[in-house]
Amino acid sequence: MKLPFTRFTTFISYRLRNQLIFAFSGIVLFIVLLLTLLSYTQMTRMIEQQFLLANKENIKLVNQNLDTYLKQIEELSVSPRKDEQFMNSLLSEEYLPQQYVQNQMKNLFYSRDDIEEVSLYTPNNHKQFIVSRSLINTIHSINPHIPKEAWYQEAIQSKSFSSLQSRYETRGKDSGALFFTFHRILINIADKRPLAALSITFNVSRLNKIIEGIPDQTKDSIGIFSMDNRPFYLKGEQWGQIDLAGMLQTFAAQPSMDSIEWKEANKGYFVIHNISPLTKWKLVRLTPTDVVNGRAQEAGLVNLVIGCGLLLIFILIVMLVSGIITRRLKRFSQTIDQLGEGQLRSIEQIDGQDEISHLSRKFNQMVGRINELILEKYEMKISERNAQLKALEAQINPHFLYNALQAISTKAILHGRNDIHDMVEALASTMRYCIQDGYQVSVADELEHVMYYTMLQKARFGSRLQVVCNLPDSLHSIRIPKMLLQMLVENSIKHGLEQSFHPVVISICGKVEYGNAVLSVSDNGPGITPERMKVIRAHIEDIGEPRFGEHIGLKNIVTRLKLMYGDQAQFSMESKPGEGVHVTITFKLGKEAAYVQGAHH
Predict the structure, then answer these.
(1) What pairing do the DSSP bridges indicate for beta strands 221-225 and 282-288?
(2) What global pTM score does this model have?
């Protein structure tokens, strides 16, 4: 297992092109998988919502057709009441009235093709007449037990004097015959006494046509339930696998819900129901969630195939683009290899505005500069001896330089250029201060030197540079290392004023606190980032001789303070981006180190 993986990692890390292809292919693969997953989730949710919405409306329409059908049956059952001769014949025991009743029953039986049987029961004599498709003639019998039947009691107590009985109540759920019976009590309007009980048994041919209005019933189950949750019509295999009573009670507990997700024996179903506003019967559709999820899976599979195709296209594009990018780097790498072998020659210019073209231009500049330096080195070797001889002869007398500056100053006064005169005087004073003997100076002399230095810098920066001094007189006479404050002011100009387009104020402050002299130089420049400040502090705190390079002035200050005051001297530097730099120097008054106070210093 390790060997193939090692080969794979070696192949990836060997060339930048392979790394780009692997990285971008991984990113594209992640995006495609993520989009496919999100698309599948969204598609599943959308299909479920569309399924529920479409079926809710469809079931509602089917329930309206069912109400119309039941209303027709109800009107058919009350039609005999409109026949006065029929109603009067129910009270007679003679042959002709009885024959008229039987004929009317036959007419009612043959009025519709979905009627299976018509039965008439008269409670005054307990006679029962039956007309059905299985009998040629009308039969009659004596049946005194009918008033005790549940359907009879329900019809008597009903306000409409009717009841509906399904096949499950008469022959059980396992019966193969599909029918239902509508019972109607015909009463005497005068005394409200029952004259007869008319029972019409229907097959479900027309009911099936109504139910067929519900689409996609291949794997669904359709059920019709009465107000008291008795099954009236059941179609499908799932009804025997679920807790029917619990499901209907859930709908009864939450009447506002028209759909729920039902789980039974680790299998899920979408249950949609609609209650008839006329009969209050429930039409319920039971659909396995696998059916709906299967449609989402098909759509997800299509999205996955499309995603794989897009992934392949993107990988080809990544390979092509990576080849174009790395082709230029390969040429550049070959030239660098030749440089390592000592062949100093420029590469062919790489067109473009990106980092690679910029790097090629800088490389050509570097090669040209190296060649120039090599040529200068040879020239320097030729003139080195002459330079050494001339250096011995070119001892320039500082007085000659002061005299020259004095001549320039005098000429500037004669021509009315007092500004040039002031600058020359400031330059002369600065040079005299720098080359004079002595390691220590007073704070007053150092401030005078800072003012001359500032005058020269203002000739360059103008009003953008302002120096404010706030030192008490008690500090003017103390001794400090020469150029101490000047280096701090110079550091503020270099890293504060030169890095900003706004005016910068440099403040020189001081005070005496607990026997210590506290000097501070601060500015309101752009400040220093925490990362850069960390590097500066590490450079300052480095133990050893000062080195030439960046921040040599700060390192020089810290070194001289330690030499002069030892551990009594403290140096701190604080800065925040946009808030300038604040440098504080603290040392004990009159507590120079022993070797500083000694005569040998």
Answers:
(1) antiparallel
(2) 0.45
